[in-house]
Amino acid sequence: MLFNTLVFWAFFSLVYLLYILFRKHLRAQNILLLIASYFFYGYWDWRFLALLLTSTILDYFCGLRIHHSPTQQAGKKFLILSVVGNLTILGFFKYFNFFVESTAWLLQRMGLPAPDYFLRIALPIGISFYTFQTMSYTIDIYRGKMSPTRDFLNFALFVSFFPQLVAGPIERARHLLPQILNPRQITPRFLREGIYLITWGLYKKVVVADNLSRIVDKVFAGHATFYGSEILVSLYAFALQVYGDFSGYSDIARGLGRLMGFDIMLNFNLPYFARNLREFWRRWHISLSTWLRDYLYISLGGNRRGKIITYRNILLTMLLGGLWHGAGWNFVLWGFYWGILLVVYRLIFKPDGIKNQANRFTGVLSTVVTFHLVTFGYLLFRSTSLNQIISLSSSLFGNFQITPLSIYWLGQFFFFSWFLIVIEIIQFKKGDLDLVLHLSPGWRGLFYLILAFMIISFGVTGGKEFVYFQF
Protein backbone atom coordinates (compact mmCIF):
# COMPACT_ATOMS: atom_id res chain seq x y z
CA MET A 1 0.00 0.00 0.00
CA LEU A 2 1.71 3.15 -1.27
CA PHE A 3 1.28 6.71 -0.04
CA ASN A 4 0.85 7.86 -3.65
CA THR A 5 -2.25 5.75 -4.34
CA LEU A 6 -5.97 6.24 -3.78
CA VAL A 7 -6.09 2.90 -1.96
CA PHE A 8 -3.88 4.25 0.80
CA TRP A 9 -5.86 7.46 1.22
CA ALA A 10 -9.11 5.51 1.42
CA PHE A 11 -7.47 3.32 4.09
CA PHE A 12 -6.11 6.31 6.00
CA SER A 13 -9.43 8.20 5.82
CA LEU A 14 -11.24 5.31 7.48
CA VAL A 15 -8.52 4.86 10.12
CA TYR A 16 -8.42 8.59 10.81
CA LEU A 17 -12.19 8.82 11.20
CA LEU A 18 -12.18 6.03 13.77
CA TYR A 19 -9.12 7.58 15.43
CA ILE A 20 -11.01 10.84 15.92
CA LEU A 21 -14.06 9.00 17.24
CA PHE A 22 -11.84 7.29 19.85
CA ARG A 23 -10.10 10.56 20.83
CA LYS A 24 -11.10 10.20 24.50
CA HIS A 25 -9.95 6.58 24.70
CA LEU A 26 -6.18 6.19 24.39
CA ARG A 27 -6.25 2.40 24.62
CA ALA A 28 -8.80 2.14 21.83
CA GLN A 29 -6.78 4.50 19.65
CA ASN A 30 -3.62 2.45 20.12
CA ILE A 31 -5.38 -0.84 19.40
CA LEU A 32 -6.85 0.74 16.26
CA LEU A 33 -3.41 1.95 15.13
CA LEU A 34 -1.86 -1.46 15.82
CA ILE A 35 -4.52 -3.25 13.75
CA ALA A 36 -4.17 -0.65 11.00
CA SER A 37 -0.38 -0.99 11.03
CA TYR A 38 -0.49 -4.76 10.68
CA PHE A 39 -3.07 -4.49 7.91
CA PHE A 40 -0.91 -1.86 6.17
CA TYR A 41 2.18 -4.10 6.31
CA GLY A 42 0.30 -7.28 5.48
CA TYR A 43 -1.22 -5.65 2.41
CA TRP A 44 2.05 -6.37 0.55
CA ASP A 45 2.45 -9.94 1.80
CA TRP A 46 0.69 -11.20 4.92
CA ARG A 47 3.32 -13.92 5.42
CA PHE A 48 5.94 -11.34 6.45
CA LEU A 49 3.78 -10.31 9.40
CA ALA A 50 5.33 -13.29 11.19
CA LEU A 51 8.79 -11.69 10.93
CA LEU A 52 7.49 -8.38 12.25
CA LEU A 53 5.84 -10.15 15.16
CA THR A 54 8.96 -12.24 15.84
CA SER A 55 11.16 -9.13 16.13
CA THR A 56 8.56 -7.53 18.38
CA ILE A 57 8.33 -10.50 20.75
CA LEU A 58 12.12 -10.97 20.82
CA ASP A 59 12.91 -7.38 21.78
CA TYR A 60 9.97 -7.02 24.17
CA PHE A 61 11.20 -10.08 26.07
CA CYS A 62 14.90 -9.11 25.92
CA GLY A 63 14.15 -5.54 27.01
CA LEU A 64 12.42 -6.75 30.17
CA ARG A 65 15.11 -9.30 30.98
CA ILE A 66 17.93 -6.78 30.48
CA HIS A 67 16.22 -4.32 32.81
CA HIS A 68 15.57 -6.89 35.55
CA SER A 69 18.92 -8.68 35.33
CA PRO A 70 20.81 -8.57 38.66
CA THR A 71 24.07 -7.53 36.98
CA GLN A 72 25.06 -5.81 33.76
CA GLN A 73 26.89 -8.96 32.68
CA ALA A 74 23.69 -10.98 33.06
CA GLY A 75 21.78 -8.37 31.08
CA LYS A 76 24.40 -8.47 28.36
CA LYS A 77 23.39 -12.03 27.50
CA PHE A 78 19.91 -10.85 26.56
CA LEU A 79 21.31 -7.89 24.64
CA ILE A 80 23.41 -10.33 22.61
CA LEU A 81 20.31 -12.47 22.07
CA SER A 82 18.43 -9.44 20.77
CA VAL A 83 21.21 -8.26 18.46
CA VAL A 84 22.11 -11.71 17.14
CA GLY A 85 18.45 -12.67 16.68
CA ASN A 86 17.60 -9.50 14.76
CA LEU A 87 20.73 -9.55 12.62
CA THR A 88 20.24 -13.24 11.82
CA ILE A 89 16.75 -12.57 10.48
CA LEU A 90 17.93 -9.50 8.60
CA GLY A 91 21.01 -11.25 7.26
CA PHE A 92 19.13 -14.32 6.03
CA PHE A 93 16.40 -12.46 4.16
CA LYS A 94 18.50 -9.58 2.87
CA TYR A 95 21.95 -11.08 2.22
CA PHE A 96 21.47 -14.81 1.64
CA ASN A 97 21.14 -14.49 -2.14
CA PHE A 98 24.04 -12.05 -2.32
CA PHE A 99 26.49 -14.31 -0.49
CA VAL A 100 25.41 -17.46 -2.33
CA GLU A 101 25.72 -15.79 -5.74
CA SER A 102 29.07 -14.21 -4.82
CA THR A 103 30.38 -17.60 -3.64
CA ALA A 104 29.24 -19.26 -6.86
CA TRP A 105 30.96 -16.56 -8.94
CA LEU A 106 34.18 -17.01 -6.96
CA LEU A 107 34.09 -20.79 -7.39
CA GLN A 108 33.59 -20.43 -11.13
CA ARG A 109 36.56 -18.03 -11.34
CA MET A 110 38.68 -20.62 -9.52
CA GLY A 111 37.56 -23.36 -11.91
CA LEU A 112 35.64 -25.21 -9.22
CA PRO A 113 32.10 -26.58 -9.55
CA ALA A 114 29.37 -24.19 -8.39
CA PRO A 115 25.72 -24.97 -7.63
CA ASP A 116 23.45 -24.58 -10.65
CA TYR A 117 20.37 -23.64 -8.62
CA PHE A 118 19.71 -21.20 -5.82
CA LEU A 119 17.14 -20.74 -3.13
CA ARG A 120 15.50 -17.41 -3.98
CA ILE A 121 14.68 -15.48 -0.81
CA ALA A 122 12.15 -12.67 -1.07
CA LEU A 123 13.13 -9.45 0.72
CA PRO A 124 10.49 -8.38 3.26
CA ILE A 125 9.67 -4.73 2.74
CA GLY A 126 11.08 -2.34 5.34
CA ILE A 127 12.95 -5.05 7.26
CA SER A 128 16.11 -2.93 7.61
CA PHE A 129 14.15 -0.05 9.09
CA TYR A 130 12.13 -1.86 11.75
CA THR A 131 15.07 -4.14 12.65
CA PHE A 132 17.27 -1.16 13.49
CA GLN A 133 14.37 0.47 15.34
CA THR A 134 13.80 -2.51 17.62
CA MET A 135 17.52 -3.05 18.21
CA SER A 136 17.94 0.53 19.44
CA TYR A 137 15.29 -0.22 22.08
CA THR A 138 17.21 -3.05 23.75
CA ILE A 139 20.56 -1.28 23.39
CA ASP A 140 19.20 1.86 25.08
CA ILE A 141 17.80 -0.23 27.93
CA TYR A 142 21.18 -1.96 28.38
CA ARG A 143 22.92 1.42 28.41
CA GLY A 144 20.53 2.66 31.08
CA LYS A 145 19.05 5.39 28.89
CA MET A 146 15.46 4.19 29.27
CA SER A 147 13.25 1.66 31.02
CA PRO A 148 11.24 -0.96 29.12
CA THR A 149 7.49 -0.90 28.79
CA ARG A 150 5.48 -3.79 30.22
CA ASP A 151 2.61 -3.16 27.83
CA PHE A 152 3.13 -5.49 24.89
CA LEU A 153 0.47 -3.90 22.67
CA ASN A 154 1.99 -0.45 23.02
CA PHE A 155 5.45 -1.81 22.31
CA ALA A 156 4.10 -3.63 19.24
CA LEU A 157 2.67 -0.33 18.02
CA PHE A 158 6.06 1.34 18.48
CA VAL A 159 7.65 -1.31 16.25
CA SER A 160 4.93 -1.31 13.58
CA PHE A 161 3.57 2.29 13.52
CA PHE A 162 2.47 2.40 9.88
CA PRO A 163 3.43 5.97 8.77
CA GLN A 164 7.15 5.27 9.21
CA LEU A 165 7.20 1.46 9.24
CA VAL A 166 8.57 0.58 5.81
CA ALA A 167 10.90 3.50 4.94
CA GLY A 168 11.52 5.40 8.14
CA PRO A 169 12.47 7.62 9.76
CA ILE A 170 14.06 5.05 12.09
CA GLU A 171 12.55 6.20 15.37
CA ARG A 172 14.07 5.79 18.82
CA ALA A 173 11.92 4.32 21.57
CA ARG A 174 12.91 7.21 23.85
CA HIS A 175 11.19 9.57 21.43
CA LEU A 176 8.21 7.66 20.00
CA LEU A 177 7.20 5.29 22.81
CA PRO A 178 6.24 8.04 25.32
CA GLN A 179 3.96 9.49 22.67
CA ILE A 180 2.25 6.11 22.34
CA LEU A 181 1.89 5.68 26.09
CA ASN A 182 0.41 9.13 26.74
CA PRO A 183 -2.71 10.90 25.43
CA ARG A 184 -2.17 12.93 22.26
CA GLN A 185 -3.67 16.26 21.30
CA ILE A 186 -4.59 17.17 17.73
CA THR A 187 -4.15 20.93 17.60
CA PRO A 188 -4.81 23.35 14.70
CA ARG A 189 -1.04 23.82 14.40
CA PHE A 190 -0.52 20.07 14.03
CA LEU A 191 -3.23 19.95 11.35
CA ARG A 192 -1.60 22.77 9.38
CA GLU A 193 1.81 21.13 9.66
CA GLY A 194 0.40 17.75 8.66
CA ILE A 195 -1.29 19.07 5.53
CA TYR A 196 1.84 21.00 4.52
CA LEU A 197 4.17 18.01 5.00
CA ILE A 198 1.88 15.62 3.13
CA THR A 199 1.33 17.87 0.11
CA TRP A 200 5.00 18.88 -0.07
CA GLY A 201 6.05 15.23 0.19
CA LEU A 202 3.63 14.15 -2.54
CA TYR A 203 4.96 16.87 -4.83
CA LYS A 204 8.54 15.72 -4.23
CA LYS A 205 7.56 12.14 -5.03
CA VAL A 206 5.13 12.25 -7.95
CA VAL A 207 6.40 15.38 -9.72
CA VAL A 208 10.14 15.57 -9.04
CA ALA A 209 11.26 12.00 -8.30
CA ASP A 210 8.99 10.03 -10.59
CA ASN A 211 9.55 12.27 -13.63
CA LEU A 212 13.33 12.43 -13.21
CA SER A 213 13.45 8.65 -12.79
CA ARG A 214 12.73 8.34 -16.53
CA ILE A 215 16.07 9.97 -17.33
CA VAL A 216 17.91 7.89 -14.76
CA ASP A 217 16.36 4.59 -15.84
CA LYS A 218 17.38 5.09 -19.47
CA VAL A 219 21.06 5.49 -18.59
CA PHE A 220 21.22 2.73 -15.99
CA ALA A 221 19.12 0.21 -17.94
CA GLY A 222 22.34 -0.85 -19.66
CA HIS A 223 20.83 -1.09 -23.15
CA ALA A 224 22.77 1.75 -24.78
CA THR A 225 25.99 3.73 -24.61
CA PHE A 226 25.86 7.36 -23.49
CA TYR A 227 28.21 10.32 -23.63
CA GLY A 228 29.70 11.74 -20.46
CA SER A 229 27.42 14.80 -20.48
CA GLU A 230 24.36 12.57 -20.64
CA ILE A 231 25.62 10.45 -17.76
CA LEU A 232 26.35 13.59 -15.72
CA VAL A 233 22.82 14.92 -16.23
CA SER A 234 21.42 11.52 -15.28
CA LEU A 235 23.44 11.67 -12.04
CA TYR A 236 22.04 15.13 -11.31
CA ALA A 237 18.61 13.68 -12.01
CA PHE A 238 19.21 10.75 -9.68
CA ALA A 239 20.44 13.10 -6.95
CA LEU A 240 17.06 14.83 -6.97
CA GLN A 241 15.14 11.63 -7.69
CA VAL A 242 16.43 9.78 -4.64
CA TYR A 243 16.14 12.92 -2.51
CA GLY A 244 12.62 13.75 -3.69
CA ASP A 245 11.54 10.14 -3.33
CA PHE A 246 13.00 9.44 0.11
CA SER A 247 12.55 12.83 1.74
CA GLY A 248 9.08 12.93 0.19
CA TYR A 249 8.23 9.67 1.95
CA SER A 250 9.63 11.01 5.22
CA ASP A 251 7.62 14.22 4.86
CA ILE A 252 4.40 12.28 4.26
CA ALA A 253 5.16 10.00 7.22
CA ARG A 254 5.75 13.01 9.47
CA GLY A 255 2.61 14.66 8.13
CA LEU A 256 0.45 11.60 8.82
CA GLY A 257 1.89 11.50 12.33
CA ARG A 258 1.12 15.18 12.82
CA LEU A 259 -2.52 14.68 11.86
CA MET A 260 -2.76 12.09 14.64
CA GLY A 261 -0.89 14.16 17.23
CA PHE A 262 2.52 12.46 16.86
CA ASP A 263 5.90 14.11 16.42
CA ILE A 264 8.01 11.95 14.07
CA MET A 265 11.65 12.97 13.87
CA LEU A 266 13.10 15.08 11.05
CA ASN A 267 14.95 12.90 8.54
CA PHE A 268 16.24 15.43 5.97
CA ASN A 269 17.47 18.98 6.47
CA LEU A 270 18.37 20.51 3.08
CA PRO A 271 21.27 18.06 2.54
CA TYR A 272 22.46 19.43 -0.80
CA PHE A 273 23.28 22.75 0.86
CA ALA A 274 25.91 21.05 3.05
CA ARG A 275 29.27 22.81 2.90
CA ASN A 276 31.33 19.74 3.73
CA LEU A 277 31.09 15.97 3.77
CA ARG A 278 30.46 15.59 7.49
CA GLU A 279 27.71 18.19 7.37
CA PHE A 280 26.04 16.26 4.54
CA TRP A 281 25.54 13.27 6.83
CA ARG A 282 24.12 15.53 9.52
CA ARG A 283 21.47 16.57 6.99
CA TRP A 284 20.85 13.38 4.96
CA HIS A 285 18.87 10.37 6.28
CA ILE A 286 19.42 11.74 9.78
CA SER A 287 17.72 8.81 11.51
CA LEU A 288 20.15 6.31 9.94
CA SER A 289 23.31 8.42 10.20
CA THR A 290 22.68 9.12 13.90
CA TRP A 291 21.83 5.43 14.44
CA LEU A 292 25.13 4.36 12.89
CA ARG A 293 26.97 6.96 14.95
CA ASP A 294 25.33 6.07 18.28
CA TYR A 295 25.14 2.29 18.01
CA LEU A 296 28.01 1.35 15.70
CA TYR A 297 30.70 4.05 15.47
CA ILE A 298 30.67 4.85 19.20
CA SER A 299 30.43 1.16 20.11
CA LEU A 300 33.59 0.53 18.05
CA GLY A 301 35.37 3.19 20.08
CA GLY A 302 34.56 6.31 18.07
CA ASN A 303 37.48 8.73 18.15
CA ARG A 304 38.63 7.86 21.65
CA ARG A 305 41.46 5.44 20.80
CA GLY A 306 43.75 7.40 18.54
CA LYS A 307 43.76 8.40 14.89
CA ILE A 308 44.31 4.99 13.31
CA ILE A 309 41.44 3.38 15.24
CA THR A 310 39.24 6.38 14.44
CA TYR A 311 39.89 5.98 10.71
CA ARG A 312 39.20 2.25 10.98
CA ASN A 313 35.90 2.97 12.75
CA ILE A 314 34.87 5.47 10.09
CA LEU A 315 35.60 2.97 7.31
CA LEU A 316 33.76 0.12 9.04
CA THR A 317 30.77 2.32 9.82
CA MET A 318 30.41 3.52 6.24
CA LEU A 319 31.00 0.03 4.81
CA LEU A 320 28.26 -1.40 6.99
CA GLY A 321 26.10 1.62 6.17
CA GLY A 322 26.58 0.77 2.51
CA LEU A 323 25.59 -2.84 3.09
CA TRP A 324 22.54 -1.69 5.05
CA HIS A 325 21.30 -0.10 1.83
CA GLY A 326 21.44 -3.29 -0.16
CA ALA A 327 23.03 -6.65 -0.86
CA GLY A 328 25.34 -5.84 -3.75
CA TRP A 329 28.96 -5.02 -4.47
CA ASN A 330 27.94 -1.58 -5.70
CA PHE A 331 26.71 -0.77 -2.18
CA VAL A 332 29.94 -2.10 -0.69
CA LEU A 333 31.91 0.17 -3.03
CA TRP A 334 29.63 3.10 -2.24
CA GLY A 335 30.18 2.59 1.49
CA PHE A 336 33.94 2.28 0.95
CA TYR A 337 33.93 5.42 -1.22
CA TRP A 338 32.23 7.36 1.56
CA GLY A 339 34.55 5.92 4.18
CA ILE A 340 37.61 7.06 2.22
CA LEU A 341 36.09 10.50 1.63
CA LEU A 342 35.40 11.02 5.33
CA VAL A 343 38.84 9.77 6.37
CA VAL A 344 40.55 12.08 3.87
CA TYR A 345 38.35 14.95 4.99
CA ARG A 346 39.32 14.30 8.60
CA LEU A 347 43.00 14.17 7.66
CA ILE A 348 42.81 17.54 5.91
CA PHE A 349 40.55 19.41 8.30
CA LYS A 350 40.12 19.50 12.06
CA PRO A 351 37.53 17.10 13.54
CA ASP A 352 34.95 19.88 13.74
CA GLY A 353 35.41 20.66 10.07
CA ILE A 354 35.15 24.13 8.60
CA LYS A 355 33.42 26.29 11.16
CA ASN A 356 33.74 29.63 9.41
CA GLN A 357 33.78 30.29 5.68
CA ALA A 358 36.10 33.09 4.63
CA ASN A 359 33.51 34.62 2.29
CA ARG A 360 30.37 33.87 0.36
CA PHE A 361 32.28 32.62 -2.69
CA THR A 362 34.21 30.11 -0.57
CA GLY A 363 30.97 28.88 0.96
CA VAL A 364 29.29 28.42 -2.42
CA LEU A 365 32.36 26.69 -3.86
CA SER A 366 32.51 24.33 -0.87
CA THR A 367 28.82 23.47 -1.33
CA VAL A 368 29.29 22.82 -5.06
CA VAL A 369 32.31 20.56 -4.48
CA THR A 370 30.48 18.64 -1.74
CA PHE A 371 27.43 18.18 -3.96
CA HIS A 372 29.50 16.76 -6.81
CA LEU A 373 31.38 14.37 -4.54
CA VAL A 374 28.01 13.14 -3.27
CA THR A 375 26.64 12.94 -6.81
CA PHE A 376 29.53 10.89 -8.16
CA GLY A 377 28.91 8.45 -5.33
CA TYR A 378 25.44 7.93 -6.78
CA LEU A 379 27.03 6.32 -9.82
CA LEU A 380 28.19 3.54 -7.51
CA PHE A 381 24.90 3.51 -5.60
CA ARG A 382 22.61 3.30 -8.65
CA SER A 383 24.65 0.97 -10.86
CA THR A 384 23.55 -2.64 -11.09
CA SER A 385 26.95 -4.27 -11.63
CA LEU A 386 30.69 -3.66 -11.43
CA ASN A 387 30.90 -3.72 -15.23
CA GLN A 388 28.34 -0.94 -15.43
CA ILE A 389 30.28 1.16 -12.92
CA ILE A 390 33.43 0.80 -15.05
CA SER A 391 31.59 1.51 -18.31
CA LEU A 392 29.76 4.60 -17.06
CA SER A 393 32.85 5.97 -15.30
CA SER A 394 34.88 5.56 -18.50
CA SER A 395 32.30 7.50 -20.51
CA LEU A 396 31.85 10.15 -17.83
CA PHE A 397 35.55 10.99 -17.61
CA GLY A 398 36.83 9.89 -21.01
CA ASN A 399 34.07 10.60 -23.51
CA PHE A 400 32.55 13.88 -22.37
CA GLN A 401 30.71 15.66 -25.14
CA ILE A 402 27.73 18.03 -24.98
CA THR A 403 24.88 16.53 -26.99
CA PRO A 404 21.32 17.59 -27.88
CA LEU A 405 20.05 14.79 -25.64
CA SER A 406 21.99 16.05 -22.61
CA ILE A 407 20.63 19.59 -23.21
CA TYR A 408 17.08 18.21 -23.52
CA TRP A 409 17.46 16.18 -20.33
CA LEU A 410 18.89 19.19 -18.51
CA GLY A 411 15.80 21.14 -19.55
CA GLN A 412 13.58 18.39 -18.16
CA PHE A 413 15.62 18.38 -14.97
CA PHE A 414 14.96 22.05 -14.30
CA PHE A 415 11.35 21.93 -15.54
CA PHE A 416 10.32 19.31 -12.99
CA SER A 417 12.52 20.50 -10.11
CA TRP A 418 12.57 24.32 -10.34
CA PHE A 419 9.93 24.82 -7.65
CA LEU A 420 11.72 22.47 -5.23
CA ILE A 421 15.03 24.25 -5.85
CA VAL A 422 13.51 27.73 -5.35
CA ILE A 423 11.71 26.82 -2.13
CA GLU A 424 14.75 25.09 -0.64
CA ILE A 425 17.04 28.01 -1.49
CA ILE A 426 14.66 30.32 0.37
CA GLN A 427 14.41 27.85 3.29
CA PHE A 428 18.20 27.69 3.47
CA LYS A 429 18.63 31.47 3.26
CA LYS A 430 16.02 32.07 5.96
CA GLY A 431 17.16 29.12 8.08
CA ASP A 432 13.55 27.96 8.38
CA LEU A 433 12.29 24.56 7.15
CA ASP A 434 8.74 25.59 8.11
CA LEU A 435 8.95 28.81 6.15
CA VAL A 436 5.73 28.10 4.24
CA LEU A 437 3.76 27.83 7.48
CA HIS A 438 4.95 31.29 8.46
CA LEU A 439 3.94 33.00 5.22
CA SER A 440 0.97 35.32 4.94
CA PRO A 441 -2.29 33.65 3.83
CA GLY A 442 -1.89 35.05 0.32
CA TRP A 443 1.63 33.70 -0.24
CA ARG A 444 0.74 30.41 1.42
CA GLY A 445 -2.27 30.09 -0.86
CA LEU A 446 -0.06 30.71 -3.91
CA PHE A 447 2.34 28.00 -2.69
CA TYR A 448 -0.46 25.43 -2.44
CA LEU A 449 -1.91 26.56 -5.79
CA ILE A 450 1.42 25.91 -7.53
CA LEU A 451 1.76 22.55 -5.76
CA ALA A 452 -1.75 21.51 -6.83
CA PHE A 453 -1.10 22.60 -10.42
CA MET A 454 2.20 20.70 -10.60
CA ILE A 455 0.78 17.54 -9.04
CA ILE A 456 -2.36 17.50 -11.19
CA SER A 457 -0.62 18.49 -14.42
CA PHE A 458 2.69 16.65 -14.17
CA GLY A 459 2.38 14.13 -11.35
CA VAL A 460 3.09 10.53 -12.34
CA THR A 461 0.05 8.37 -11.63
CA GLY A 462 -0.11 4.63 -11.08
CA GLY A 463 1.57 4.43 -7.69
CA LYS A 464 5.27 4.19 -8.58
CA GLU A 465 7.07 2.45 -5.72
CA PHE A 466 9.36 4.40 -3.40
CA VAL A 467 13.09 3.82 -3.97
CA TYR A 468 13.92 2.96 -0.36
CA PHE A 469 11.33 0.17 -0.17
CA GLN A 470 14.03 -2.15 -1.55
CA PHE A 471 16.21 -1.48 1.50
Annotation field: number of helices: 17
Alpha-carbon Rg, integer: 23 Å
- Average pLDDT confidence is 90
State the separation between the terminal residues, measured CA to CA.
16 Å
Order of helices and strands: HHHHHHHHHHHHHHHHH
Notes on the protein architecture:
The chain has 471 residues and is an all-alpha fold. The protein is built from 17 helices and no strands. The protein folds into two domains: 6-184, no CATH class; 189-275 and 357-470, no CATH class. Helix content is 70%, strand content 0%. Helix 3 (49-68) packs across helix 6 (152-160), helix 8 runs antiparallel to helix 16 (404-430) and helix 11 packs across helix 12. The protein starts with 5 loop residues before the first helix and ends in a 13-residue tail after the last helix. The relative contact order is 0.10. The model has no long low-confidence stretch (mean pLDDT 90).
Keywords:
single chain, 471 residues, mainly alpha, 2 domains, 17 helices, globular
Write the layout of secondary structure elements.
Elements: H1 6-21, H2 26-42, H3 49-68, H4 72-109, H5 127-142, H6 152-160, H7 173-181, H8 188-220, H9 228-259, H10 277-283, H11 286-297, H12 307-325, H13 329-348, H14 360-382, H15 386-398, H16 404-430, H17 441-458
Helix pairs in contact: 1-2, 2-6, 3-4, 3-5, 3-6, 4-5, 6-7, 8-9, 8-16, 8-17, 9-14, 9-15, 9-16, 11-12, 12-13, 13-14
Short description:
This protein is an all-alpha fold.
